């Protein structure tokens, strides 16, 4: 039985204010973020600028600073903030009873280059 | 009224028309005679009115100011920070002696006026001095209200209005013990905060069920109460004082009507203020609650004006500074014959208690047709409520996150239709203005010209821009010219945005704030971490009024470093505040893989190390290995999951992390030196290894490179390193502040020493001085350019023991740093940084593809 939501583990696998990676075989890797206020977000782990791994950036409020050239990316919308232009796909995510779920249909995104 | 052709008699005008000429000119003699303006009250409004007049027409009046307080004009609202120990009196002086002198103002301080004689147009001071006036300005402020309970006159009962009151509180606080503050409004809470910081056990007794009920609704009042209780204050709401109990003529306790009694070595009465109208009343001027004035701040006697907290204008009396700036402008306009008229003010309130962000404006009592929009974020302790009526914003209460306060206040004052942004209104300007407007400059650009930027000094956006256009190109210049951000500093970010907007790239840097999240400079933050004993990033952000919930990618690493440097061995490093390279102990590459550089002490290596590196390269299919410019080998293309395994293999061959990624000691370059070289004077290789062993692993403001050359031919390029040693026959020349990077800078010669041991000590001391003083991300070269070589020399050598002390501090902090970070990871520490959360293997691609 396949539900709409994919269980990707318990919330305490991610320290608040950090992210972890979720490779999808054959497709783009996903970065799963947990903010300091305990909001959870999932984004394709590729900066819209030059594909920097967003999961490795510093998380503050509900954005992440890309480790390669310091673009700030909104975790909510995937959009680059400030002067920079670009957007990374987001994956709908929910937390229920301490487990994290991704919207199954969105997990498989673009085939990895 | 004129006599003869040669002089002019002073007119004693019964001014009927405001724009009547106030100076008479003798037809034959062009010398003008100034009118005599006498000001009663050397406070905020009185002096500001004079400033405004001088700005319009410096030659118009002969000014005499009487002040009851024996001192110059100061910023009364800053008494709270003085009480809390955050400012000294000198910091809050608005106009010092030189201002009075420069403007030929006679200041009669410590001599209150006791009566006004309107018939002769004179005032009488307590000392007996009689001063005639043509125009009189009453600016007597207000008097603290004393509740008429038994014991109110006991010694130890104080109010909170002027510097003498603060002195009394400080004297009491020195002895410690308990304080009871009666009144949980703005003043009372600021007094309580100060006394509690000064070490007293503080109880606040408030009559109403909600703290600051005039500014806060119940929810915000509750959050405030909880926070103050968490900080150790006892908050009694609904507490009605029955009596102040005394012992030997001095207060000892406060008893409430319900019988509860609280010990008190001092009682601060902060229940409210009353306009200071006594003088005006006895002079027969019209007085209701305050001295009644018209829109030009003129009283019922046309020769007498009044301004500030003592007045009542269109039925309203004010207890905040913002309205009096408006009043003073209108007053000066009228006194200088271009009357504009004051129409009353809408006020907003902020509480000046560090770490508590609270903002309130307008009417939030709700009422007919008013709608509330509320947002709470319990985890962040944020509560926001805006009140909308007829599609206009009429009130706002913000607790915990007040970043949007000035925007709401602006909307409120302008009374604009907000239907378009209604949905997003509560989320603040960034959202309401259409999505990702996170650029603070854009937010400030969107403010209207009359939006208030500096609440403490009543400076509008238009005024700041005018100041900048008139040539103030730095924060300091703006501060000294129009006073914006010169008081509490909370609007520094706004002023900086205005500088950036107005001047583009031409802003001259003053003491720059650390980042957009704070109004403090790097130096302030470092100092306050020590003074306030701040021990964690959240605590520092809380106590230093960070304007963002958890900082940004530039202040977090800086704070982490400052705390680490301040509290070696105590502070626990915050991994999530570190840039990825320092978190993963490897350099991130453009493709998201990492490079690994093991340490090769002094550039020396051996077969075992080389073999281990060769094996790693093969085993992990590293696409490249390269000799670096720092005399060691760099292995490229390692995945973050493989890093621990790579390190395990390198560790096994005795190698540790080279910190090629860190704001820390990088390499110590050496040359072959006396051991092999025909010119070598000392063992440069050996000394390099010793220096590297001493300094590796330390965290610094920026990367730090050392080199040791065996003779002045300088093959190790020691004169472009942060610390360079050039060996000579007679000893060692020690160089500092070199940089071979973006901007090449040759070193300065620091000193010459005779032995290796001295070299080691000076090196350790220099590094520690740099660690303790430089700004985060400032290398030694720009640091020395900023502070000057003499400053560095003084810090090291002025006192014979400095080198020893600094070196000892460095060595102490090194005892906590010289564990190989790679070994820890190999042993399993922070494994989650390397491992994937999970892996998804789609069953069949078609099943999911859309
Ligand atoms: C690997 C190496 C180049 C090489 O292949 O030789 C290198 C590589 C990098 N340098 Fe360098 N620098 C290397 C020696 C140097 C040198 C030469 C030296 O140390 O003698 C200099 C000039 C000397 C100096 O620092 O004064 C140098 C001046 C810089 C600068 C400019 C620093 C400055 O203050 O102006 C940067 C940029 C920065 O730090 O902000 C930089 C930054 C970088 C970074 C870290 C860029 C980055 O942030 O990703 C490069 C990392 C590449 C990687 O992924 O490994 N690198 N870099 C050298 C490593 C030395 C080592 O063993 O640790
Ligand atoms: C501790 C504290 C904190 C405050 N914090 C804030 C704040 O954060 N924000 C805000 O907007 N407002 C704040 N206020 C209120 C603000 O300080 C007042 O609104 C402002 O000072 C009023 O200015 P003023 O000139 O009318 O009165 P004052 O500044 O009080 O000046 C009146 C002066 O007249 C003198 N005087 C009185 N009678 C005579 C006489 N007969 N002869 C000669 N001199 C006389 C007094 O000694 C006094 O120096 C605070 C007030 C206090 C006490
Ligand atoms: S000079 Fe340094 S920073 Fe520039 S490309 Fe080469 S290694 Fe990278
Ligand atoms: S790749 Fe993210 S900022 Fe350049």
Task: Work out the helicity level of chain B.
Answer: 25-40%
Counting helices, strands and paired strands, the structural category of chain A is mainly beta
Taking Cα atoms only, what radius of gyration of chain A do you get, to the nearest Å?
13 Å
Tell me the strand percentage band of chain A. Answer: 35-45%
**Contiguous runs where pLDDT drops below 50 for at least 5 residues of chain A:** none
Which kinds of small molecule does this entry bind, naming each only once? siroheme, flavin-adenine dinucleotide, iron/sulfur cluster, FE2/S2 (inorganic) cluster
Largest interface, counted with CB-CB under 8 A?
A: A-B, 47 and 42 residues
How confident is the prediction overall: mean pLDDT of chain B? 88
How many β-strand runs of chain B?
Answer: 38
Span between termini of chain A? 31 Å
In round numbers, the mean pLDDT of chain A is 90
Content-based structural category of chain B:
alpha/beta
Spatial sequence of strands, sheet with the most strands of chain B: 5-2-1-9-21
The helix count of chain A comes to: 1
Helix content of chain A: under 10%
Termini separation of chain B comes to: 98 Å
Q: Would you identify the regions of chain B where 5 or more consecutive residues have pLDDT less than 50? A: 1-31, 844-850
Present the secondary structure layout.
The complex is a heterodimer of chains A (113) and B (850).
Chain A: E1 5-10, E2 18-24, E3 27-34, E4 40-44, E5 58-60, E6 63-65, E7 72-74, E8 90-91, E9 93-96, E10 99-103, H1 104-107
Antiparallel strand pairs in A: 1-10, 2-3, 3-4, 4-8, 5-6, 6-7, 9-10
Chain B: E1 35-40, H1 44-56, E2 61-67, E3 73-74, H2 79-83, H3 89-92, E4 93-95, H4 97-102, E5 106-109, E6 113-117, E7 122-125, E8 130-132, E9 135-138, E10 142-144, E11 157-159, H5 163-174, E12 178-182, H6 186-197, E13 201-206, H7 218-230, E14 234-237, E15 241-247, E16 250-256, E17 261-263, E18 266-269, E19 273-275, H8 278-282, E20 291-293, E21 304-306, E22 311-313, H9 321-335, E23 348-350, E24 358-362, E25 370-377, E26 382-389, E27 392-399, H10 405-414, H11 429-432, H12 440-445, E28 452-454, E29 459-460, H13 461-469, H14 475-482, H15 492-503, H16 522-531, H17 537-543, H18 555-566, H19 580-584, E30 587-588, E31 594-596, H20 607-619, E32 624-627, E33 633-638, H21 643-652, E34 665-670, H22 684-695, E35 704-709, E36 723-728, E37 731-736, E38 748-753, H23 756-773, H24 780-787, H25 789-797, H26 802-814, H27 821-826, H28 845-848
Parallel strand pairs in B: 1-2, 1-9, 2-5, 9-21, 11-18, 12-13, 12-18, 13-14, 20-22, 34-35, 35-36
Antiparallel strand pairs in B: 3-4, 6-7, 7-8, 10-19, 15-16, 16-17, 23-24, 24-27, 25-26, 26-27, 28-29, 30-31, 31-33, 32-33, 36-37, 37-38
């Amino acid at each position: 039985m396949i539900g709409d939501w994919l269980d990707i583990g318990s919330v305490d696998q991610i320290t608040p204010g950090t992210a972890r990676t979720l490779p999808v075989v054959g497709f783009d890797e996903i970065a799963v973020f947990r903010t300091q206020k305990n909001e959870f977000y999932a984004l394709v782990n590729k900066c819209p600028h030059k594909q920097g791994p967003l999961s490795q950036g510093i998380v503050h409020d509900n954005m992440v600073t890309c480790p390669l050239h310091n673009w700030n990316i909104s975790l909510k919308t995937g959009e680059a903030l400030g002067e920079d232009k670009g957007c990374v796909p987001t994956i709908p995510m929910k937390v229920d009873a301490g487990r994290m779920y991704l919207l199954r249909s969105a997990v498989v995104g673009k085939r990895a280059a | 009224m004129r006599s003869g052709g040669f002089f002019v008699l002073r007119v004693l005008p019964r001014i009927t028309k405001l724009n009547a000429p106030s100076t008479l000119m003798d037809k034959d003699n062009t010398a003008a005679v100034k009118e005599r303006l006498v000001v009663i009250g050397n406070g905020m409004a009185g002096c500001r009115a004079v400033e405004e007049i001088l700005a319009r027409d410096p030659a118009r009046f002969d000014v005499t100011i009487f002040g009851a307080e024996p001192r110059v004009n100061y910023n009364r609202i800053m008494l709270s920070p003085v009480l809390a120990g955050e400012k000294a009196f000198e910091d809050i002086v608005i106009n010092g002696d030189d201002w009075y002198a420069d403007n030929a103002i006679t200041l009669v301080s410590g001599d209150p006026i006791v009566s006004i004689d309107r018939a002769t147009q004179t005032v009488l001071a307590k000392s007996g001095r009689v001063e005639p006036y043509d125009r009189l300005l009453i600016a007597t402020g207000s008097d603290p209200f004393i509740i008429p309970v038994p014991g109110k006159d006991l010694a130890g009962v104080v109010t909170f209005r002027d510097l003498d009151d603060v002195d009394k509180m400080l004297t009491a606080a020195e002895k410690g013990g308990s304080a009871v503050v009666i009144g949980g409004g703005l003043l009372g809470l600021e007094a309580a905060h100060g006394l509690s910081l000064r070490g007293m056990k503080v109880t606040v007794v408030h009559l109403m069920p909600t703290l600051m009920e005039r500014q806060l609704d119940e929810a915000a009042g509750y959050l405030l109460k909880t926070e103050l209780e968490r900080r150790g204050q006892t908050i009694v709401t609904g507490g009605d004082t029955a009596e102040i109990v005394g012992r030997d003529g001095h207060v000892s306790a406060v008893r409430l009507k319900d019988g509860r009694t609280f010990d008190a070595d001092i009682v601060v009465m902060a229940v409210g203020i009353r306009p200071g109208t006594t003088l005006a009343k006895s002079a027969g001027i019209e007085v209701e609650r305050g001295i009644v004035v018209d829109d030009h701040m003129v009283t019922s006697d046309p020769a007498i004006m009044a301004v500030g907290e003592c007045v009542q204008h269109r039925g309203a009396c004010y207890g905040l500074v913002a309205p009096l700036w408006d009043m003073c402008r209108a007053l000066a306009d009228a006194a200088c014959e271009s009357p504009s008229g004051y129409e009353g003010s809408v006020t907003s309130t902020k509480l000046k208690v560090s770490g508590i962000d609270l903002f309130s404006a307008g009417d939030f009592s709700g009422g007919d047709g008013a709608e509330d929009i509320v947002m709470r974020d319990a985890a962040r302790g944020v509560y926001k409520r805006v009140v909308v009526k007829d599609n206009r914003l009429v009130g706002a209460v913000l607790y915990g996150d007040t970043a949007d306060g000035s925007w709401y206040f602006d909307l409120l004052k302008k009374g604009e239709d907000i239907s378009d942004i209604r949905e997003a209104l509560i989320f603040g300007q960034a959202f309401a203005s259409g999505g990702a407007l996170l650029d603070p400059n854009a937010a400030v650009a969107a403010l209207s010209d009359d939006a208030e930027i500096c609440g403490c000094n009543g400076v509008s956006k238009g005024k700041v821009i005018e100041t900048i256009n008139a040539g103030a190109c730095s924060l300091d210049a703006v501060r000294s010219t129009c006073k914006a951000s010169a008081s509490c500093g909370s609007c520094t970010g706004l002023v900086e945005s205005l500088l950036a907007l107005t001047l583009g790239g031409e802003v001259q840097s003053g003491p720059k704030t650390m980042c957009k999240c704070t109004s403090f400079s790097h130096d302030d933050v470092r100092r306050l971490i020590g003074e306030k004993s701040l021990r964690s990033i959240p605590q520092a952000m809380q106590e230093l009024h960070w304007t963002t919930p958890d900082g940004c990618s530039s202040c977090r690493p800086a704070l982490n470093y400052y705390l680490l440097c301040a509290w070696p061995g105590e502070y626990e490093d915050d991994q999530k505040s570190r840039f990825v390279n320092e978190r993963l102990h490897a350099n991130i590459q453009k493709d998201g893989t990492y490079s690994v550089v093991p340490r090769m002490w002094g550039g020396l290596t051996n077969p075992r190390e080389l073999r281990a590196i060769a094996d790693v390269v093969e085993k992990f299919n590293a696409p490249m290995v390269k000799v670096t410019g720092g005399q060691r080998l760099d292995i490229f293309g390692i995945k973050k999951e493989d890093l621990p395994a790579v390190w395990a293999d390198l560790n096994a061959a005795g190698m540790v992390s080279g910190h090629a990624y860190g704001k820390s000691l990088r390499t110590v370059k050496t040359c072959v030196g006396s051991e092999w070289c025909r010119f070598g004077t000392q063992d440069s290789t050996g000394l390099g290894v010793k220096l590297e062993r001493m300094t590796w692993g330390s965290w610094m403001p920026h990367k730090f490179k050392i080199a040791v050359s065996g003779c002045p031919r300088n093959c190790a390029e020691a004169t472009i390193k942060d610390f360079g040693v050039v060996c000579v026959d007679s000893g060692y020349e020690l160089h500092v502040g070199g940089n071979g990077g973006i901007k090449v800078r040759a070193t300065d010669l620091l000193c010459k020493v005779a032995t290796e041991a001295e070299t080691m000590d000076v090196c350790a001391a220099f590094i520690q001085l740099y660690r303790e003083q430089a700004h985060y991300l400032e290398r030694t070269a720009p640091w020395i350019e900023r502070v000057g070589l003499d400053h560095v020399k003084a810090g090291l050598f002025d006192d014979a023991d400095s080198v020893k002390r600094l070196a000892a501090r460095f060595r102490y902090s090194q005892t906590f740093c010289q564990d190989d970070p790679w070994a820890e990871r190999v042993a399993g520490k922070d494994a989650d940084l390397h491992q994937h959360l999970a892996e998804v293997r789609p069953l069949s691609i078609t099943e999911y593809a859309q």
